[in-house]
Write a structure and sequence with these properties.
The protein has 101 residues and is mainly alpha-helical. Helices cover 77% and strands 0% of the residues.
Amino acid sequence: MIINQFLILGAALFSLGVYGMLVRRNAVLILLSVELMLAAVNINLVAFSSLVQDAVAGGQIFALFVITVAAAEVGIGIAIILLIFRNRRSANVDELDLLRL
């Protein structure tokens, strides 16, 4: 397979993630859209790493870092969303005015 196919797939996934971030109102679905964008970045990193084929495999190492950051982000994000849901009884981001005076 050529690299253009992977780049098109990554761009399509990233576009779907951006669309989900802009359109969704639920905080969990917004978090899912962020994960979709991070998966698109991982596809591009691995595709470019296979294109360059260096001894270090830098793209694959960066993809592992992105996966670990994504796992930490999901853990913290879900915890914050659950705490907000306990207090407000809604995960709708339009109704989050906890920081407003």
